[in-house]
Amino acid sequence: MNSLQQLKQHTVVVADTGDIDAIAEYKPQDATTNPSLLYKAAQMSQYQHLLDEAIAYGQSIANREESLIDAIIDKLSVTFGCRILEIIPGRVSTEVDARLSFDTEGTVAKAHELIELYREAGVSSDRILIKIASTWEGIRAAERLEKEGIHCNLTLLFGFGQAIACAEAGATLISPFVGRIYDWYKADRGVDDIPIEDDPGVESVTQIFNYYKRYGYKTEVMGASFRTKEQVIALCGSDLLTISPALLGELAASDAPVPPRLDAAAAKEMEIEQVEMNEIKFRWMLNEDAMATEKLADGIRGFTADLDKLRSYLAQRMETAAA
User: Any idea which residues carry the catalytic annotation?
Assistant: First the structure.
């Protein structure tokens, strides 16, 4: 077996892309998208018919320019999600507008809108994960949505306190960002590389996984944002791993052994102190973690910027079509 096949024996593999062709090639269980991936996919020639479908939908229901573009983006996100679900057997993650990261009510409302669009397309909410930034407000929104039976993927997760709060809120899934943690520490230490055995991103996911299993939390851990296949292999045994097509290709082309590194049964026996979480504790732990504070803010800004690029691209496309 190649490395990807070995990995799939111990971990659910998720494709981190909006490229439907890549998902079909590597046959993951689940798939996840974000504004950056959606913006890239929207410019690919093979998906222009999906863009046209979303524009026609938006124009049929919206009468203001701002609500028109937002309606198109929501429909585009769901349309890509529906196409992906035709290929994979599991779930797809669809992201809430990053501008709502500090708006609990707005996040809940947007999640309802996305779930309704999927329902209209004939897709059950059981196959959808609503992707929300791991702010205190986002976590509170996820807590409410989970109680309604709407499953959530808490993203932009960098700190241990964020992970604990997500689990106590009953989130279905978290996505700790291995590569972005690695990038921050590499810059902070002024080095070109960090050995895999000292990789802070790998260490972060390992710590979270062991804590969850030790205390019996049902929230699943899905390592994300990988830079190398070695980081992926180092987290074999995690509940899920979401991996880019490039790294999926490297794993498929490799025959390196991929033994499980994370062990839920072993974690249950570990001596780990349990943290009592509340809003004050959450904000203090985030404040004390410079990496998590900076990367959370940077991630929200980055996803917002990519959404703005997508808005501009859609506006230009509609102007060209109308000319």
Answer: 131
